[in-house]
Structure formats: structure tokens, C-alpha cells
């Protein structure tokens, strides 16, 4: 990334729409505008009615006069440093014709010192210029790319700085605890300095740790913390056929031979129109218990069993041999029981209560299953599907790091210098998200709290 | 008269002594006597090595500094061991990383030892006089002009170290009384302030204070609680034998009879008197506007800031075996004499105490330290080094550490060698120098262990392992007998560490657990380690110091590894130099606050830049992006020109 250039990009999506917005930012904004607008661009902050030149195609005939080649647009001007990027910024709202928008953008890019913005560069500049913090910038990017209500909520939390505020509050508490521990080390020779007791320290570390670990959520392999929905059942229960039918395309080889699927297959699965959001749909090898197929099969079985353990939602498929008998107690909402191959049972036969009858061949029950998956995912609650740490991996890693360091701190509470080292680590981990706490700040807290000095 | 030296050191306090000593250690390699020449210029040679305030060396974090100075071949540890009358390991109940060796010295014996050490060096010539002018040409120092007995002498040298302590425009306050001077009975140094201002340096003003001194015979000494030292004193210097079993060696340390201190306290009566007379205290009447230290507040500060407390503890510490002066640790004050009388005479055991000297505050000039590099050299004048309180620090140990760094770098400057910069991960000395060049001092700077982010690595016990090899590489040890003895002794230490480490690896505890694993248990002590290996005769000769380091290294190992990983993670950015052509005003998008901080401090590395107040990680990223682009045409022109 190069700072200092003026950058331009189409801010709205491709394709026809009623409006298209072009965004330009950098020191050369007005010079560039002067070249593409019919009259010199207004320099003041605000919205202006202006006209932009639409030059003819190189090989197109210039049939009309100059006037007809000027197109009225609305120009929004923000002057740096009080703009989104911190630089002079302009937005041109042009009629949403993709061709027209492209032509205006090309004209801007043809100006000296103007280049196409890289992805996220406007926000990157806002960050570099101190207009948004790193976590807020991440929120912007998440809002743009959110694929679920949970991601939208986390994006908003970040963008509005609420996440940052929470991190800072935790950082404050840890810094205070660190100051108390440090006071017990650096001012141990002073009467009147009563370092915090082990029990009180453990309790307070525990409290802030619980909050941080809650926000971190469980470590998830899935990118962006999407809920994982697995199709499980015995071999030849029709899982792969159902998998293909749900996705609406043939993704895995389904065959009448039991055990065709050996490794888990993962695909993105859009829950629309039942719910907004995308989950990961996983097709598993059949779970057949022990004693079949030797060592390799044993490994496949173990992996599949692990997937079921880790899954957010389990769709247990059964073709009539007895539905999901082994695994229903206690798993409540995340367990969906399905009677596959419903066509073989014959129409009018109601499956037992709480079991969805589906048929991948004639599509019977598929929409109902999709709805049930959506309900189950929604029912996971924010604790499982939507914590910030699960949605934003960088935050998850930092928060988990802080949580682990705090756990060590609590365990080491009897040893001041090791507790302090662990608390510092926790602060550093949080510092990756909010900015560091310096030793000076810690000392400042000590001096504020204690009468130190002989 | 004009005289040529290799290095000139101005000031004979703790900074000046270490600077002259370190320079002498390096210059001792020179074949010609004319090149082995260090001038130590001081107002009064009889005051070299004087302890102006508390007659104590070391303490928390300061003890680590003394051990580091010693590991680098310095003076302070030797003088403290020779003059200590009470040794105490502070924080001994905690882990070895935060132990703070401290001693109270016989202040006369301490200064005598320092003077004898300085006198023993043929490289050092002590010159009495006041520096009147700094001779600078083309941005480089050429020497100083010294006035003594109305005669001026010009001393020339390509490197000059200024250690002015509290003497630059020193002004002492006791109540409404003000006396110019840096220490009771001694005149201030005013010309240097002017010379520095004329050179364009930005000066600041700081304040420090000292408590009243009492006559011991007038105190009911035995009625007060005793505060004894450690039953087994620990010396500072690696050259002082410790833990030796032979009768001959143990008679060497401690060298002086050991004493007890006494404890007493202030009373509500005194606090009331202080409150009634606050308007007469210079800090509150407005006579002193400079800032004093928060960690060493005067008794009037304590009474104001912690109004709810009815009493503050006071330690009565003997200053010397040769006189009966008692230092009142805890009641530093600049209140008028009549109020100090009340404060003292209401303390238990002190009803009839005679105040030999009243407490006072002293204000003095400092050079704001953003104007020096981490080497001690000023950015403005090549070859001019500053060390000690002139840089806004407080404490003998902090001053001595800077003196050593400046002394070494003065000689390296002379030779055109690359400057020696100590890393924050290498030593407290590195933390000190780095803090000085990245922080705006609001009060006299004092070292604390919490300032060192790699505290577990920077222990008092392992100072020789961290720094003596560096001292050897720098040439601080090779040219003197004492230095060679130190190097030889370090080789023994190193081999003992290897032997002991191997023994630990192969041993088990009495209950059968592998020793390297058992030592990680929280309840496993250094004594347990010795007990576990008691049967190994081949380890019997290994010194107690090596045992301690072996224990600490092993017990902290998982945490040390974590800290080392952290150091490695930041190493590249930490030491990456900020290119000289980089002009902060040309970095578009830099926030004004960051631009100001960077322009003021002109950090040498990205690590330093990141530690400046007002500079965010985003600013550093922007700077790195800018640096990567290379100099623009204007800067290129300037470089080639």
C-alpha cells in the first residue's frame, strides 16, 4: 500500500442501479475533479450540483455538441482531516448506468497522481490517519462482508467502537491489578503499601478472565465462525444424496454401495429464504460402530465421530433402521432427526413424532429440513454463534491469548513476579486490539494509590 | 594554558566517577601515555564520590543496576562492598528476579574508597576548577575552559562528558531561606547552564530534597525498634568473595562492622504543624515551581496527598561509623527550621534530638533528555555527552549507569567506533537509556523493576552472565589487572554453571522426580536444589552465586522462554533504524500529535518511535511505509550534497 497518492474507486456495486457513487480521496482530489468536471470543482464542504464531461468513445462519432456531453451529477465534498479517510474526499453520485460510471472513473484515473484504490484502502487510510481504530476498521470490513445476523451484529459492535470500549475496560482492570502486584514488588520496602491479597487477586483476575473468555468463544476452525451443520448417520443412510439435494447440485458421489463417503465434505449452504445467513454443511462418512473395515476405516470413523462432537447442528439421517437411537438424550436443539428415503415408506405414512421425513429424489420435506436447520442455527444463541472472537479470528486469537495468560496469572498468584509477567502478557494480548499499556501508566496507578517514598 | 586529553569528564559525582573509570579502562590499552589521558574536572576534588543524600547503595531495581555496573567493570559495587555497614536483600521473600541487593554505606568510607580507586588510575588526572565555557566548533566539542583561582585553563579533548548533578544553577530552599548551591556549603555551577543555553539546548528544572540529620547521642536509640541487616550479607561485586568457607576470605567481607538502624514515626501533632505552615513551604508558597519526585515525596507532600494518614514511618540510619550523624529516612522536607523542629521532636525517641543539619530542597537545571541519544551523546554537539542528574534522573545508581555508558561511548567516539547501545532486553541500563530518550520527564526519573518488561531475564544474580562478556568485547577488562581478574573469574563462573547444569539434568529428587521437572514446582526453593545435589562432592566448590543463578534459570525457564520469544518477535522492528533522510513533515497523513512527538524526539529506531507518547501503532506503520519508499528527490539531493 502506498500512501500519499490520490485514490479513486466505484463505491457502489456493479450492474444497473438508480445511482452509482464514485469515491476519490487524497491530496489531488480537486485537481482531478477540475479535469473531469465542466466547471472548476467547488472546494467547500457540502453537496453541490455540478456537471461532469462524458467524452465520446475513441471510435464513437461526436454527433452532438459539447453541451450534450455534460452530465449533471451531485458532488459531495469533505475536507480533510475531518473526512472519513482523514484526507480531502469527494463522492460523485452519477446516474446508475454502469457504462457511464465506468467512463467517469476512467476519466478520474487518467488524471496525474490518481490511481485505482486497492480493496479496503479508504478504510486503511482512515486507520493510518487516526480516524478509526484498527478494530473499528475491522468492523467496517465485516459490515460489508457480513453473511449473517451474527456477523452484522459483531460488525456494528466493532464499527461503533463498543467492542473497543469493552476491551479498554478489561485492559483498565488488568492494568489496575498489575499496578497492585507491581506495588507489592517495587515498594515492598515501604510501610503503607499493602499489596493485593492472593484471594482478592484471584477473584478479580477470574472475573475479568470470564468476561474475556466469554467474548472469545470457543476456538473454531471454521473461518468467520460459521455454524457447522453435519449430516450424520449410518452408512448408506442417504446422507450424500441429501447433501446434494440440499445444495441443489451434485457435489459428492452418492452411491447405493454403503460407505462411499470416507472424508468429510464441506460446502457453504445458504439458508435463504428461511433465514439470512450461510452455514457450513458437512457430509460425513457413515458411523457404523466398531469392527468394520480395518484400521483405515477406524480412523475415518474416529474423524467422523469427532465432527459430530464439534458440530453446531447434527442432522441425523436414518433410512428406517431405527432413528438416531444412540444420540438424542441431552442434545436437544442441535439434534435434527430425519427419516430419509421417505418415498420408499410410501405416501401418507407419517414418520414418528419429531422426525422429519424427506426424500431427496422427489424433494419431499427438503424445505422443511432447511427451515429446521435455520431454526437450530438461530437457536444456538449468541454464545455459540455470534461472539466477537468467533466471528473475527484476529480478535478471537488475541482474546484467547489474554484469557490463557489470565488463567496462568490466577494460578501463579502466590508468586508476584510471575503473576505480573502473566498479567503483562494478558495486557499485551489485549494491546494488539486496543494499544499498549506502558510501564509508566502502571507506575502512575501505583503512585495514585499509595503513599510511597521514604 | 592549553592541555590536551583524550576524554574530559566534568563532575566528580557517581556519574562522573564511572565515566572517567570506564574511559580509563578502555584507554589503558593505548601504548602512549599521552593518549591514556582522562581529565576529571571537579569544583572540589575532596568531594569526589560524596553521597549527597541517603548513605545507601542499591535497593529494588537500583541493586540490579549496581550489579550490572559491576559486571561491566565499574566502581560502584566495589566501593559499596568496601564501605557497607548494613547489607540487606530486599524482596528476599519473593522470587530471585525481584531481589534487590541494598547496603547502607559509611558515607565517609564510601567516598574514601572511590577517591582511592580514582587515585590508583594513572590514566585519570583530577583537575580542580569550575567549567566556564564549552568549546564547540562546527557542531563538535573541542574542550572546556576551566577557571580555578582566577586563572583560566583550556582543556582540549574530542569527547567531553558533563555530569553536573544538582549543581547547574543549584538553588537550595529551607522555608523562606534560599541559598545558591548544589549541596550544603558548596557553590553552584552557573556558567555551564548559560553555555548550554547558548548552544541551543533546551533546559528544564527539577527539584529534589533531603531530610534533616540528627545527632545520635541525643536520640533515645535503644528505646526504638531495631532494624538489623541480613545475618549473611551479600556483596554487590563479583570480585568480592562471597559464600567462601575459608576463614581468611570471610574476613574480607563485610569489611566494616555492621550496624542496626532504628524505626520511629511521625505523629498527628507534626502533621498538624505541617498543615498550619504549608504556606511557608517553598513547594506550596510558589517559591519552587519545578516538580519533585512522586516516589520520594517530602513529608509535607505526604501529609497533603494522603491526608487520612496520621503517621508515616521513619527510618533512622547511621551515616558513618566515624561520626554520630543519623539520616532520617522518610521526612525529607524544605519547611522552615522551626517546623522541622516540631516534626523531629514529636517522633518517639527523638524528643530531645539535636538537628545537626536541617532538611532542604534543591532546584537545579537539567537538559531535557530528548536531546541525547541512547549512547549519552547529545544530538546537537558531536562528542558532547551528558550523564546523571543533568538528564533528569535521580539516584546514585541511575547516575552511575549513565556515566558508564557515556564513558564507554566517549572513547568509542574518539576512535570512530560504532556507538554502544544497550538493549532493553539486555540490562536495566538499557531500559534506563531507552526511557530517557523516549519519555518526557515530569519528575526525576528513578528505576523500578516494573519499568523492565523483561524483568525475569534481567536479574541481579545473572548480571555477569548478561554483561561481562559484553564488557570483555568492548575492551573494558583486558587492559587492567582488575579487569583481567574479573574476566578470569567469569570464566570460572561460566564453567561452574555448565557443570552444575549438567548435574541438574541428570539428578532426581529424593522422591524420585527428575530434578529439572521438580524445580519448576512453585514450592521448590534454592535450598531444595542444594539439598538434592548435596551428595555430589564435585559440586562442593561451586560458589553460592552460581547456585542461585542455576536455580533461577531453571525455575523461571518456561517464563524466560516466553520472554525470549517476545524479544525475538519484536527484535527486527526494535532495532531497525529510522533513515536519516526521513522528514516527518513530508509524511502525508501523519497526525499532528505524532508528528510533533517524532520531530521532538527524533527517535533512532522504530522501536524507540513506537514508545513515544502520542505515537500510535498506526503512525509507526505509516512511517515504515514511508521509509520503505526511499528518499524523495529532495532528500536524495540532500544526501548526495
Task: Chart the SSEs and their pairings.
The complex is a heterodimer of chains A (454) and B (641).
Chain A (H helix, E strand, L loop, with lengths): L5 E5 L8 E7 L3 H8 L9 E8 L16 E9 L10 E7 L2 H12 L4 E3 L4 H8 L5 H12 L3 H11 L2 H25 L11 H19 L11 E6 L5 H9 L17 E6 L7 E6 L10 H17 L2 E6 L16 E5 L2 H4 L9 E3 L8 H14 L1 H5 L2 H4 L1 H19 L4 H19 L4 H11 L5
Parallel strand pairs in A: 1-6, 7-9, 7-10, 10-11, 11-12
Antiparallel strand pairs in A: 1-2, 2-5, 3-4, 4-5, 8-9
Helix pairs in contact in A: 3-4, 4-5, 6-7, 6-15, 6-16, 7-14, 14-15
Chain B lengths: L1 E3 L2 E4 L3 H14 L10 E5 L13 E3 L3 H10 L4 H8 E7 L9 E6 L1 H13 L4 E5 L1 E8 L2 E9 L2 E6 L2 E4 L8 E4 L2 E4 L10 H8 L4 E8 L2 E3 L9 E3 L19 H4 L10 E5 L2 H9 L5 H4 L13 H7 L7 E6 L6 E5 L7 H9 L9 E3 L2 E8 L16 E3 L9 H20 L12 H11 L24 H12 L6 H26 L8 H4 L7 H7 L11 H12 L1 H19 L16 H10 L4 H5 L6 H13 L3 H8 L1
Parallel strand pairs in B: 1-10, 2-3, 2-11, 3-7, 11-22
Antiparallel strand pairs in B: 4-6, 5-6, 8-9, 9-10, 12-13, 12-21, 14-21, 15-19, 15-20, 16-17, 17-18, 18-19
Helix pairs in contact in B: 1-11, 2-11, 2-13, 3-4, 7-10, 13-14, 14-17
Amino acid at each position: 500500500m502506498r500512501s500519499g497518492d490520490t485514490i479513486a474507486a466505484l463505491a457502489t456495486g456493479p450492474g444497473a442501479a438508480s445511482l452509482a457513487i464514485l469515491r476519490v480521496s487524497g491530496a489531488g482530489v480537486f485537481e482531478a475533479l477540475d479535469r473531469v468536471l465542466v466547471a472548476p470543482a467547488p472546494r467547500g464542504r457540502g453537496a453541490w450540483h455540478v456537471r461532469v464531461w462524458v467524452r465520446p468513445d475513441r471510435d464513437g462519432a461526436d454527433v452532438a455538441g459539447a453541451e450534450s456531453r455534460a452530465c449533471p451529477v451531485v458532488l459531495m465534498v469533505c475536507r480533510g482531516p475531518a473526512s472519513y479517510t482523514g484526507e480531502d474526499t469527494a463522492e460523485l453520485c452519477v446516474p446508475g448506468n454502469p457504462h457511464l460510471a465506468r467512463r467517469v472513473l476512467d476519466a478520474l484515473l487518467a488524471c496525474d497522481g490518481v490511481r485505482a484504490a486497492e480493496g479496503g484502502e479508504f478504510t486503511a487510510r482512515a486507520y493510518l490517519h487516526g480516524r478509526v481504530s484498527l478494530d473499528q476498521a475491522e468492523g467496517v470490513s465485516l459490515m460489508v462482508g457480513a453473511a449473517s445476523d451474527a456477523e452484522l451484529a459483531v460488525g456494528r459492535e466493532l464499527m461503533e467502537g463498543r467492542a473497543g470500549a469493552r476491551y479498554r475496560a478489561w485492559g483498565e482492570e488488568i492494568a489496575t491489578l498489575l499496578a497492585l502486584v507491581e506495588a507489592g514488588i517495587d515498594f515492598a520496602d515501604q510501610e503503607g503499601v499493602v499489596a493485593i491479597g492472593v484471594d482478592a487477586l484471584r477473584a478479580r483476575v477470574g472475573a475479568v478472565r470470564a468476561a474475556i473468555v466469554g467474548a472469545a468463544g470457543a476456538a473454531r476452525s471454521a473461518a468467520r465462525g460459521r455454524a457447522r451443520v453435519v449430516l450424520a448417520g449410518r452408512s448408506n443412510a442417504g446422507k450424500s444424496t441429501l447433501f446434494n439435494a440440499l445444495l441443489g447440485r451434485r457435489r459428492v458421489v452418492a452411491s447405493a454401495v454403503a460407505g462411499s463417503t470416507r472424508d468429510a465434505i464441506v460446502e457453504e449452504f445458504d439458508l435463504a429464504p428461511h433465514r439470512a445467513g450461510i452455514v457450513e454443511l458437512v457430509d460425513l462418512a457413515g458411523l457404523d460402530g466398531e469392527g468394520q473395515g480395518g484400521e483405515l476405516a477406524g480412523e475415518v470413523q474416529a474423524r467422523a465421530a469427532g465432527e459430530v462432537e464439534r458440530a453446531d447442528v447434527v442432522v441425523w439421517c436414518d433410512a428406517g433402521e431405527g432413528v438416531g437411537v444412540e444420540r438424542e438424550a441431552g442434545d436437544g436443539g442441535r439434534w435434527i432427526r430425519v427419516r430419509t428415503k421417505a418415498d420408499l415408506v410410501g405416501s401418507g405414512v407419517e414418520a414418528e413424532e419429531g422426525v422429519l421425513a424427506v426424500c431427496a429424489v422427489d424433494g419431499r420435506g427438503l424445505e422443511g429440513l432447511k427451515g429446521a436447520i435455520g431454526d437450530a442455527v438461530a437457536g444456538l444463541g449468541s454464545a455459540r454463534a455470534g461472539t466477537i472472537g468467533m466471528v473475527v479470528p484476529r480478535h478471537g486469537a488475541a482474546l484467547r491469548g489474554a484469557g490463557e495468560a489470565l488463567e496462568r496469572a490466577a494460578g501463579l498468584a502466590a508468586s508476584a513476579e510471575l503473576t505480573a509477567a502473566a498479567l503483562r502478557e494478558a495486557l499485551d494480548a489485549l494491546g494488539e486490539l486496543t494499544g499498549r499499556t506502558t510501564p509508566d501508566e502502571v507506575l502512575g496507578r501505583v503512585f495514585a494509590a499509595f503513599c510511597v517514598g521514604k | 594554558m592549553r592541555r590536551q586529553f583524550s576524554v574530559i569528564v566534568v563532575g566528580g559525582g557517581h556519574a562522573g566517577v564511572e565515566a572517567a573509570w570506564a574511559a580509563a579502562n578502555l584507554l589503558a590499552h593505548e601504548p602512549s601515555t599521552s593518549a591514556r589521558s582522562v581529565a576529571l574536572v571537579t569544583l572540589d576534588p575532596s568531594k569526589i564520590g560524596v553521597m549527597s543524600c541517603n548513605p545507601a547503595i542499591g535497593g529494588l531495581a537500583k541493586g540490579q543496576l549496581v550489579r550490572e555496573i559491576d559486571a561491566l567493570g565499574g566502581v560502584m559495587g566495589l566501593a559499596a562492598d568496601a564501605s557497607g555497614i548494613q547489607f540487606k536483600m530486599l524482596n528476599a521473600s519473593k522470587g530471585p528476579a525481584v531481589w534487590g541487593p541494598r547496603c547502607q554505606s559509611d558515607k565517609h568510607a564510601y567516598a574514601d574508597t572511590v577517591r582511592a580507586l580514582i587515585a590508583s588510575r594513572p590514566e585519570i588526572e583530577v583537575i580542580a576548577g569550575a567549567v566556564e565555557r564549552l568549546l564547540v566548533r562546527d557542531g563538535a566539542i573541542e574542550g572546556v575552559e576551566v577557571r580555578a583561582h582566577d586563572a583560566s585553563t583550556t582543556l582540549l579533548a574530542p569527547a567531553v562528558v558533563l555530569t553536573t548533578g544538582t549543581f547547574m544553577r543549584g538553588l537550595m530552599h529551607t522555608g523562606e531561606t534560599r541559598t545558591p548551591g548544589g549541596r550544603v556549603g558548596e557553590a553552584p555551577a552557573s556558567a555551564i547552564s548559560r553555555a548550554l543555553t547558548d548552544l541551543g539546548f533546551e533546559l528544564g528544572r527539577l527539584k529534589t530534597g533531603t531530610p534533616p540529620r540528627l545527632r545520635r547521642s541525643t536520640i533515645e536509640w535503644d528505646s526504638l525498634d531495631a532494624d538489623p541487616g541480613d545475618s549473611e550479607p551479600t556483596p554487590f561485586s563479583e570480585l568480592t568473595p562471597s559464600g567462601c568457607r575459608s576463614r581468611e576470605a570471610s574476613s574480607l567481607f563485610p569489611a566494616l562492622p555492621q550496624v542496626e538502624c532504628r524505626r520511629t514515626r511521625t505523629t498527628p501533632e507534626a502533621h498538624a504543624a505541617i498543615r498550619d505552615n504549608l504556606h511557608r513551604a517553598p513547594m506550596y508558597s510558589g517559591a519552587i515551581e519545578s516538580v519533585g519526585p512522586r516516589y520520594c515525596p517530602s513529608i509535607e507532600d505526604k501529609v497533603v496527598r494522603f491526608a487520612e494518614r496520621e503517621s508515616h514511618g521513619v527510618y533512622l540510619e547511621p551515616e558513618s561509623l566515624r561520626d554520630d550523624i543519623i539520616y532520617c529516612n522518610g521526612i525529607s522536607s524544605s519547611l522552615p527550621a522551626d517546623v522541622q523542629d516540631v516534626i523531629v521532636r514529636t517522633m518517639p525517641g527523638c524528643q530531645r534530638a539535636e538537628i545537626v543539619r536541617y532538611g532542604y530542597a534543591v532546584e537545579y537545571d537539567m537538559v531535557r533528555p530528548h536531546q541525547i541519544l541512547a549512547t549519552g551523546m547529545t544530538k546537537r554537539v558531536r562528542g558532547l555527552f551528558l550523564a546523571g542528574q543533568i538528564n533528569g534522573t535521580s539516584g546514585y545508581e541511575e547516575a552511575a549507569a549513565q556515566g558508564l555508558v557515556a564513558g564507554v561511548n566517549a572513547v568509542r567516539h574518539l576512535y570512530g567506533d560504532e556507538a554502544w547501545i544497550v538493549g532493553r532486553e539486555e540490562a536495566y541500563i538499557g531500559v534506563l537509556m531507552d526511557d530517557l530518550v523516549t519519555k518526557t520527564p515530569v519528575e526525576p526519573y528513578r528505576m523500578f523493576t516494573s519499568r523492565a518488561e523483561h524483568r525475569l531475564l534481567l536479574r541481579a544474580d545473572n548480571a555477569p552472565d548478561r554483561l561481562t562478556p559484553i564488557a570483555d568485547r568492548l575492551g573494558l577488562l583486558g587492559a587492567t589487572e582488575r579487569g583481567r581478574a574479573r574476566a578470569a573469574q567469569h570464566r570460572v563462573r561460566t564453567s561452574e554453571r555448565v557443570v552444575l547444569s549438567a548435574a541438574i539434568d541428570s539428578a532426581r529428587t529424593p522422591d524420585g522426580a527428575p530434578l529439572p521437572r521438580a524445580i519448576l514446582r512453585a514450592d521448590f526453593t534454592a535450598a531444595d536444589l542444594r539439598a538434592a545435589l548435596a551428595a555430589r562432592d564435585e559440586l562442593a566448590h561451586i560458589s553460592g552465586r552460581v547456585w542461585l543463578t542455576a536455580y533461577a534459570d531453571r525455575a523461571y525457564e518456561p517464563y524466560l522462554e516466553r520472554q525470549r520469544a517476545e524479544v525475538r518477535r519484536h527484535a527486527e522492528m526494535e532495532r531497525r533504524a529510522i533513515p536519516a533522510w526521513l522528514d516527518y513533515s513530508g509524511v502525508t497523513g501523519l497526525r499532528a500529535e505524532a508528528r510533533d512527538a517524532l520531530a521532538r524526539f527524533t527517535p533512532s529506531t522504530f522501536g524507540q518511535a513506537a514508545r513515544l507518547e502520542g505515537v500510535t501503532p498506526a503512525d509507526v506503520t505509516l512511517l515504515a511505509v514511508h521509509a520503505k519508499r526511499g528518499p524523495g528527490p529532495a532528500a536524495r539531493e540532500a544526501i548526495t550534497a
